[in-house]
Amino acid sequence: MAKLDRLGWADGMSFSAYGVRVGLRVNDRAILKRLITRLPPGAKPSDARTVNHLYSLTGFGNNSNGKIRRFNLGYWNLARFARTRNFEDLLDQFESHLQLTVAEYAPRRVFVHAGVAGWKGRAIVIPGMSFSGKSTLVAELLRAGATYYSDEYAVIDEHGRVHAYPRELRIRPAEPTGVERLRPEQLGAEIGSKPLRVGLVVSTRFKEGAHWRPRELTRGKAVLELLAHTVSARSQPEMALSFLPKALEPARILKGVRGEASEIVKSILRKID
Q1: Sequence-distant (≥ 6) Cβ neighbours of residue 108 within 8 angstroms
Q2: 234 CB burial (10 A radius; 0-12, 13-18, 19+)
Q3: Distance between CA 34 and CA 24 in Å, rounded?
Q4: Residue 236 gets which letter from DSSP?
Q5: Whole-angstrom distance, CA of residue 39 vs CA of residue 18
Q6: Interhelix angle for 219-227 vs 237-248, to 10°?
Q7: Which of 66, 87, 110, 189 is least surrounded by CB atoms within 10 angstroms?
Q8: Contacts of 196 (CB under 8 A, 6+ apart)
Q9: What gap in Å lies between CA 161 and CA 238, rounded to an integer?
Q10: What span, in angstroms and rounded, lies between the C-alpha atoms of 65 and 100?
Q11: How far lies 209's CA from each of 113, 118, 129, in Å?
Q12: How far is 118 from 27, CA to CA, in rounded Å?
């Protein structure tokens, strides 16, 4: 840390997200505003001088430093998490790493990798890791009139209720041309404001040509299904095993492969109705 402290920091801030206090310092004031746009939903500036985690970033917003191309570097506490010549890559890696840090160390919330949509006062939770198609399915639910809660995390409290984590949706197109970011209002949807009880859990993945014939899981198997996608399952297992069963108490749990997301939306909504 003493070596990092000597690098010459030009600006910084601290903020709080879901009970996790985070510090951020940069070598150039010009890049701080760009980094602030990548903070987790609900992050609030803080006056705290003591933080749980410290991010130190040296970046060059124009991807260069005079005639010499420099690496953009990111450190989380003492560990380096990013080393890239492209500043946009640094932003993406910072955002992803910070979200995982908050998700793992939040003291009063359990974060499950899942898409979430609200329907008639209940939450539809779609657990899955990246590339499982959960964002695409959430988008189709929004087009059908559902309320947006998240395409990345189901944030569960001690009562088993799901809170919104309303970052922009990340949709991966069929052609590998990068990720499209969509605001829920572009799909005609509103962002949920109240925590919801879970009405339906849909554990699914895309398989071309597949027909949606889900089987219903027992609550015990569903807890294991969510636990496999819980960020803090290893670091805070007691909290996860306390919160998840409560979340599933009133819910139906379906599992199966699917074809195109648009083909199963009506079936999903009928199940929760």
Answers
A1: 18, 19, 157, 158
A2: exposed
A3: 12
A4: S
A5: 12
A6: 140
A7: 66
A8: 118, 121, 122, 123, 149, 161, 162
A9: 17
A10: 30
A11: 25, 28, 21
A12: 42
CA dist., res. 104 & res. 225, Å (int): 18
What pLDDT is stored for residue 67 in this prediction? Answer: 60
Distance between CA 225 and CA 203 in Å, rounded?
8
pLDDT, tens digit, 9 for 90 and up, residues 100-139:
999 999 999 999 999 999 999 999 999 998 778 899 999 9
Rounded to an integer, what distance in angstroms lies between the CA atom of residue 133 and that of residue 113?
12
C-beta of residue 162 within 8 angstroms of C-beta of residue 123: yes
Report the distance separating Cα 250 and Cα 232, nearest Å: 23
Q: What is the pLDDT of residue 70?
A: 82
Torsion, Cα of 150, 248, 212, 209 (10° steps): 50
Whole-number Cα distances in Å, 236 to 96, 105, 129: 20, 8, 19
Cα–Cα distance for residue pair 270/266, rounded to 1 Å: 6
- Amino acid in the structure at residue 31: I
Phi–psi pair at 40, nearest 5 degrees? -65, 155
**Spans of the chain, pLDDT less than 70:** 62-69, 174-177
Burial class (CB in 10 A: 0-12, 13-18, 19+), 231: buried
